Known about the structure:
The chain is an alpha/beta fold.
Amino acid sequence: MSPISALQRARAAYAPKLPGALKNGAAVAVAEGAATKSVADCDKIAALFPKTYGSPVLTFSPGENTAERSAINVGVILSGGQAPGGHNVIAGLFDGLKSLNPGNRLFGFLKGPDGLVRDEAVELTADSVDAYRNTGGFDMIGSGRTKLETPEQFALAEKHCKSRGISALVIIGGDDSNTNACVLAEYFKAHDSGIQVIGCPKTIDGDLKNEWIEASFGFDTACRVYSELIGNLCRDANSAKKYWHFVKLMGRSASHIALECALQTHPNAAIVSEEVAAEKQTLGEIVGKIASIVAARGNAGLNFGIVLVPEGLVEFIPDIKNVIAELNDLLAANAAEIEKLDALGKADFAAGKLSAASGATFKALPEGIRKQLCNDRDPHGNVQVSLIETEKMLAEMVGNRLKEMKAENAYKGKFATQTHFFGYEGRCAAPSNYDADYCYALGYNAAALIGAGRTGYMSSVRNTTKDAAEWIAGGIPITMMMNVERRHGVDKPVIRKALVELSGAPFRYFASVRDKWAIETDYVYPGPIQYFGPSEVCDQITKTLELEKK
């Protein structure tokens, strides 16, 4: 490991909080709720998961470690994109396992699920875990995006666990990773493998949440990093008074990050993809709305502002969504021919093959965006939205609309832009106190689920807006979060993504104040994450969670 900074040295001494239920260690008393069902497609999910479907919600209370417990080996995997706090999940898991039996051992599979399939792992010791406490990143054992979905992979996973004497596996990941955990738990149980599988909810996107999982870890920290940067831009804009900053924010399928950062910084405009889809807003309407805000401020002598754009916006705009769907089919059907063309050639080829409506929409886009929409797809056939420079597209199109408005004497200001994409900057930041505490509790709680002999469960720690003594620890069956979706022409069980709810308190509050923010310069400057100092500064929760729990 590289030399550590003064901050990391000081953070190593931070002792994360634990729910009251875990105050005596991971040996807990377990209360079972009623049998559960999936969020949708109950019959189909029940048929696909006959061994694990219908398990009850579990709630823990303090127990006593009085039973003789044999020492066990446990495996852990970091899966998918990085999120602040992952190391603390592992630290909590390690400490929780040791509280059950000091002889328990923890093995980290390297580079994500691929390490399980390839049997590449390292034993995690007290020294190796201590070196990473309260740090960001996934570099302790690495991560990866390999999907566990074939019988051959499941058989290898079983073989490699058994060869190491591993009787429980903890998968730390997002909705797709925990879908894999659910399928793997079912496979192990159907084959009497004797291997438990527990999931932990990770994603900075914030789209893995429900009544029992009130936040996915990493969201708090990432939003604070982005909000600090946005606040800096707000200050710069208000100082120079000559730029409009268009900021794209990570979050492929949901706008939780864009909404949270808006609540923290009060930009002049923030787009919420879910609203765009619900209202069937066209690209032209979005451009027109932003242009009207720029014009109103410019006519008042305010030639500066901030616009927040969610990463996945292009897939929520109905006319662009249709273009992408046609392009996906077109590129797949003509792969050999298109492979020989350069970026502009691909765009020209596509323009001539699209339907009349989609062709008109496609040709109206800036040339750079047309090229990007024809880029190679990801392994699942999806457009790589992080490579689509939506912020530049909107900045250019708003500029064109303002020229028209100026010719109509409807706009008298000046318009100059700067564009930004904040994504990777937040994924590996040192976790906030909230994420440090929450993640440690999730890992410790996962050890309690293992000690309770459960499988196919996700670690659940809620009521986190209260004092830690009041946090509710337990577990929910992952099948409870599942539905069936059509993917690549096949019905597949997946955890349903939690998108921004337009009827929810966070969006409703945003909608009630955005017109004021649009015209006034009402910026908030959050500043950097604070780790030491008054609780009201260091132990904040997200505005989203605050509004949801109010």
